[in-house]
Amino acid sequence: MKSRVTWLYAALALAVAVWAYDQWNSDRRQIGRQLARWQSLVEKDGDENALTQANKAARIGELLTAAFEIHLGPFSTVVTDRAQLSQVMYQYRSRASRIGVDFRDQELEIDERLRIGDMTVVAAVDGTAAGGLYREAYRFRMRWVVEGKQWRIQRAELLEVLEGSPGLF
Length: 169
Hints:
The chain has about 170 residues and is α+β, with helices and mostly antiparallel strands. The chain has one domain: Nuclear Transport Factor 2, Chain: A. The chain contains 4 helices and 7 strands. It has a 7-stranded mixed sheet with strand order 1-4-5-6-7-2-3. A hairpin with a 2-residue loop joins β5 (about 115-130) and β6. The model is unreliable at about 15-25 (pLDDT under 50).
């Protein structure tokens, strides 16, 4: 009887471990971690040297698929080149001494069979620049796909500017 209980506990512990591993590696968690990475690369707290700014701006490209599109609707800009994206992000980050980003109102639908995720999200940005404090909010739609065993953004589209002056670009 005692060995049966021991086996039951061992099986239960294994089931919990498998469940926890599955939850940690779920598609939603992986996409959430990628979005958090994006956030950490955009955010800034204090002065950075040019090399650090260029490095962070370039690393944003790691979150995108090989062939990607970023549509910046109101600005009539479509970015499909990593160097161009890096330059845009470098310029944006270099104008501010502090940038905070909060992704809110996230809606994510995942087609597990096709390994595609469609997300709408609001990027609320606040920061400090030469002109003082600023606040901006943008609603984006993103298409996530699995490439190289990682969820990456294939397409992002700025749907609307919700708050603040359009200082993104």
